[in-house]
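#lab-general

N.A. 3:47 PM
ok so I finally got the sequence cleaned up, no stray characters, all 125 residues accounted for. can someone with queue access submit it? mine expired

B.Y. 3:52 PM
send it over

N.A. 3:53 PM
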Amino acid sequence: MSAFLVSKKHIDVLVHARSIPTFWSPPEIELTDTKLGQILWRENMYSLQARYGNAIDEELIQSYSYTRPQTLTIVTIFKSIACYEYQSCEHDSWKMSKAYKYCKDIAEGLISCLPGYEEAPWGID
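B.Y. 4:20 PM
back already:
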C-alpha cells in the first residue's frame, strides 16, 4: 500500500464535515476548526513517517488555518474520509487516535444525509 500527504483543501473538507447537520449528534471534539485540521494533518504525517520514515513537518502543521471549502456532495465527503483514512492508517496508534474517532463519528452521522435515508424503514418485518 502506498500513502501520500493529503492536501490542505482535503483537510478543510474533513473539518467542514462536522458543520453539516445530521440526524446523529455531532462528534464531541471541542477544538477550533484550525486545531482539528492540524490534528488531522499530523495524523496523516504519522502514517507517512511509519511507512516511509518521513519527518513530521511541524511548520506545515502549524501553518494550517481552516478555510471553508466550496459546497460538496455528501458522497464526495464520504470519499474524502475514506481516502484520508487510507492515507493515515499506517502507524500502530491510528485506531486509538482522535483523528480515527473523528472520521468514524462523522461518517456515522453523514449516513443520515444520504438521499432516501429519511424515507427508508427503520425496521424490516
